[in-house]
Amino acid sequence: MEFHQLVLPGCFEIRLDPHGDERGYFMRTFDRNLFREHGLVTDWVQENQSLTIRKWTIRGLHFQRPPHTETKLVRSIYGVALDVFVDLRKGSPTFGRWDAVELSAEKFNLAYIPWGFAHGFCSLTEQTIIGYHVDACYAPDAEGGLRWNDPALNICWPPVAPLVSPKDNALPLLRDFDSPFNFFNVISNLEKECNHAG
What we know:
By secondary structure, this protein is mostly beta strands. It has 3 helices and 16 strands. The protein has one domain: Jelly Rolls (Sandwich), CATH 2.60.120.10. It starts with a strand and ends with a helix. The relative contact order is 0.24.
């Protein structure tokens, strides 16, 4: 299991290490001790899975507001998706910036996204299945999001006309968004995780 820090502070691509033979393979998809060594969340309370039938479908950009903020560990179980996350933490040097990881069942990789980010993905194959762990249970009243095609974000989605739900098409723009997330709270929590691991 390899941990690669991404451009946005707190975000990682995690590459798994399958060991195979003529029967198939075996691999760890989560290791509490390794996650703690990197100062990452280990207390997952809910596991979700989505099936996206059509290629070029965008879901997002979504988040939950405090006190129901979510850290996510996202993986493609079948197919390929462009996984996108946007920094919404006040005080962050990368506020309003986005990054992306191409998640593939064949690449055996995951995206780790701390709370304080909007998250979404675009299916790059038919029948894409995405699974993700979260460290907070779903709270409908805490739902929030940003428009996937907000020009202020300027996300480089695939250059096609995507399938997007009416709900996601009606999400607000960044200019109309007052972020409830604080960058320094995230850093404090990461330090606590590191200290706990030590």
